[in-house]
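This week, think about what follows.
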Amino acid sequence: MTDYSLADIHMHTTASDGFATIEQALDHIARLGTLRVVAITDHDTLDASLWAYSQQARYPFDIIPGVEVSSADGHVLGLWVTEPVAKGLSLAETVAAIHAQGGFAVLAHPFEATVSPGAALRCLRHPEIIREAGVDAIEAHNAGALTPGNNWLARRLATSLGLPVTGGSDAHSLQAIGRGLTRFPGSTADDLRAALVRGETTATGSMWPLADYLRLVPHWFDTHLNVPAEAKGRQTRPSQS
């Protein structure tokens, strides 16, 4: 009889726009006791993830080094990567950069219009671009999805392309960790990767607690829309050229 385990391979810390430090996140996961594999995937930075990876021996679960890359065509989870991947590249260029270091590329929340409406529309109209770009898997359950139908459409997309699926919490708080899950045969990070390659994973989970949405939306506006006063001065200053 095959034993199955659970992984959460999409979460954030204070290294990007999460609310918990990396130490708080790892300690919380240890207390949960339900996850056998995790990946810290902060936006466009590996700092917390690599620190977590270096502390692997302290924790009773496997840690995958990873990052969520902001490509020009949506967000891509780069798993098993230890070197930075430039943001703003095309989907194909981003995937190639992940593959160049032996990584695994997962298209995150492909139909999340609040992240990249243009990319979501392209995925809907031209799904073949995902296969052409070399994407390895589709995130079919994102626990923080805001756009109605995102997860349903992502699951259909993966089926139509014959790609493996993952589930991730996209957690920005401790309470959200484990709300999105990848179920796989085995118990280690190596087992998870082998299951992904064989297409033997399933995506499952629930959604964020309401409090997380209420907390994250103003935080998102502060992070993405507020321009520091010094930067505003530079923007309004006449060009000297």
